[in-house]
Queue: 3 jobs
Job 1
Amino acid sequence: MRLIGLAVILTLSLLAAPLGSEAQRAANSPRLGFLSSSSSERDKPRLTAFLKGLRELGYSEGRNIFIEQRYAGGRFEMLPELAAELVRLKVDILVVSGAPASNAARNATSIIPIVMTDVSDPVGIGLVASLPRPGGNVTGLSDFNAGVVAKRLELLKELVPSVLRVGILLNPANPSNPLQMKLTQAAAPALGVTLLPLEAKGPEDIDRAFTAMREERTGALLVFGDPMLGSNNRRIVELAAKARLPATYSRREMADAGGLMSYGANFTDLSRRAATYVDKILKGAKPAELPVEQPTRFELVINLNKSPT
């Protein structure tokens, strides 16, 4: 009996050793915090692209890297607490989507490295000192190119040459939207159009904005990139169609939802490339010394099922 008992103990010990080793490896694996200004549904393609980028670099979620996800769903007031929660979890790196989430993360920690995936003007809103040398704990990718903002208005004018008044739907709570407004205003005189800025801080403001456009006899619409507006993309597309307003957007998802046209950075590509920053930081690189990248790939999507007027 003693021999049998000894054999059982030895067998259990042999079985337990690999499990303990695996648990130890898991405990030592890096943990990332993924913070988004938007919703999990809207950001799913971008998270998928980010995970693909990690796999290309040898990381596998749940095996040698772990990700804690938090989403604000366009409700920016939730971001400070979500960022603080990830900081309390002591994640190794914060990966952030959108300017509001990036601001919240930066305000929550000056120590944990932050990798942004798509901030329009990281210098202008004070996230980094400069693109070549960020100088703090924030680095990553910008989705901004000044020429792209003006190009959207130009493309809209080409599509609807007779338009004289263009409505601009923007979220003033998004720190990148005022910059886009300034650049769009600079391009408007040469195109012979007058702009009507319409602010929407929440979903309840979107219907009011379309009512104002109808009253002002706006002939076309330009929608700025913003997580709250993006989370309500189907509603915006429906209202634009009902008002017979030709509209252009910054992200492909709006055209996929039925919008007329979009022009902007390839956001899934930006998300995939963000994985390279995570890899470099995990290997010892300092965010302060990793230059912020600007987009190199842009997409023009025109919905052939839609008429410009």
Job 2
Amino acid sequence: MKKIAVEEHFWTDDFRDYLRSNWSQTQVSASSPGQDEINKLLVDFDQRIKGMNSSGIEGQILTLGFPGVEGWDVVESIKWSKKTNDDLATLIQSHPGRFYGLAAIPVQDPKAAVQEMERAVKKLGLKGVQINSHVRGEYLDDRKYWSIFEQAERLEIPIYIHPRTPSPDMEKPYKAYPGLSAAMLGFGAEVHLHVLRLILSGLFDEFPKLKVVIGHMGEALPYWLWRIDNHFDRTELPKRLGREPSQYFKDNFMITTSGMFWQPAFLCAYLTLGADNIMFAVDYPHESNEVGVKFIEEIPVSDKDREKICHINAENTFKL
């Protein structure tokens, strides 16, 4: 069965070299076991294609890997957004049918971000935008960022909100235990919070056609939706929002399987959202193509639903 993996990370050689020259060594080398190998795979497209072929993945939607550009000053963020988007478009053109791309944008400057979205989609042919969650501790429910969502709705493209470690104000309690602030817990908690802030802000009443994608089987939100709704109904918020949080999540969000290859988590998401709201992803090179493919081929669903999850939903969401 055809498979398109929708959260797969890359660096260009120039981006890697820039990181090495301008960031502390721990940002781009072994901060955890296997990190050096991951950094090599981020730029090795021959190995990437071999891995796709051997595991049966026909296409990848590529996103700029950590740290992205959201944490930099505006000038550098604008420069590297444009450069990596240009390089990504060239890469996609050189491998027709194998790769698609999501743009990096300088979120710190919403006006510049909106302009780069227009260029990336209309000139470069990229299929959406990735934002690495909070912007130096600021969340996207702040009204100054809403022009980015307005542009996404106008362009009919999704925004992928990818995790980063919690904002500086929230990260301190995690630091006692190495790794806790990252994929072990902090990433999911960060995006979970961010999604609820967006929903409760009224964003999706203002932009009802907007689509947002999150990974890792929905960052635990499918599990929590009943309790969220139950306590939402006890607050003043229902008076100013049109729907319950769970309904916004079902109407305006897609989730992916990236890095969460566990049937109990999948079944919760599947029973909560149905097959139409789930897309296949690996989180390459941080996770294994083979493990991700084995998982998706063994989930207990019909062939029709498996086909939706493996490629049809991605084709529709990203207009491939």
Job 3
Amino acid sequence: MELVEDEVQKDPALQKIMEELTINPDSHRNYTLENGRLHYKGQMVLSTSSSWIPKLLCEYHTTPMGEHSGIFCTYKRIAQSLHWIGMKKTIIDFIATCYLPTE
């Protein structure tokens, strides 16, 4: 959790959102600060450069849990608890380059 918070603190776009929310909690629709952590519609926010994103994409799409499900299912599973700016595009790009061996 500390690594995620550190990545968010180093992300200029997220820092700006957090600063603006501190001044005016209604300044960014769907974003909130909860115990000093940035959330989007209740989901924890990651930096777009987070080292966790490739691991999460692999876990939620490529592993047996993910079952190489499509964009929509992968997005929905991740979006239940996490958010990052450009998340949909990141997932689309990841799945587009995913290699699923044929038998």
